[in-house]
């Protein structure tokens, strides 16, 4: 299903991080939106603090296909040895910016609980309308302790209280969302484009204000999202 010879580029994200971008990632990319449409009733709302929309978990044997993609095109660049476990989901972004909880007003990240492991995030764009937005990447401008405090407040405070304390308005993050993050780069959306990067890099969907997010898989902002838990390299390549 995945193209063994995609077009591969590397996008620097700052602080030594790199995003691996694979274009023409699938040999038959129309099959996944067709699958999503056929099983649209099996999509379930995610917890709003986890993902602002609908999700459908993919079978493990499908997710395993991403392991070869990682091994062949991204393993050395991202500094991982082998994949320990993985999950993937078809994800349909549906919440408008003003309906988001505060945790999604900020760039987000995932961190590995184990020091000898690294989480890799993968996202495959399965929509043709590029105006639905690609992915913004951000760099923190404050200390890790201050970032942790802001993340805590986003989960603990009401939207009004969080907005007053940090001066952030409801909406998907953009280049001037909050003073403690700097916009580093945006990877534009493109049909059948797969991006892979460290999951602890701050990022957000690059959804413009006021864009209409359709609930139909063939018309909405449908992506395949995967998390791969990997062992770290013991020494540099």
If you average the pLDDT, what whole number results? 94
User: What fold name goes in the CATH topology slot?
Assistant: Jelly Rolls
Task: Quickly count the helices.
Answer: 6
Report the top-level CATH class. Answer: Mainly Beta
Largest sheet: 8 strands, antiparallel
The geometry reads as: globular
List the helices and strands and how they pair.
Elements: E1 7-14, E2 17-23, H1 31-38, E3 44-45, E4 53-57, H2 60-63, H3 65-73, H4 75-78, E5 80-93, E6 117-125, E7 135-140, H5 144-156, H6 159-166, E8 181-187, E9 193-198, E10 202-205, E11 221-232
Antiparallel strand pairs: 1-2, 2-9, 3-4, 4-5, 5-11, 6-9, 6-11, 7-8, 7-10
Record keyword descriptors for this entry.
237 residues, 8-stranded antiparallel β-sheet, 3-stranded antiparallel β-sheet, alpha+beta, 11 strands, globular, Jelly Rolls
Textual characterization of the structure:
This protein is an alpha+beta fold and 237 residues long. It has one domain (7-232): Jelly Rolls (Sandwich). It has six helices and eleven strands. The protein has helices at residues 31-38, 60-63, 65-73, 75-78, 144-156, 159-166; strands at residues 7-14, 17-23, 44-45, 53-57, 80-93, 117-125, 135-140, 181-187, 193-198, 202-205, 221-232. The chain has an eight-stranded antiparallel beta sheet. Strands 8-7-10 form a three-stranded antiparallel beta sheet, with no helix packed on it. Strand 1 (7-14) and strand 2 form a beta hairpin. It is globular. The two termini are 29 Å apart. The mean pLDDT is 94.
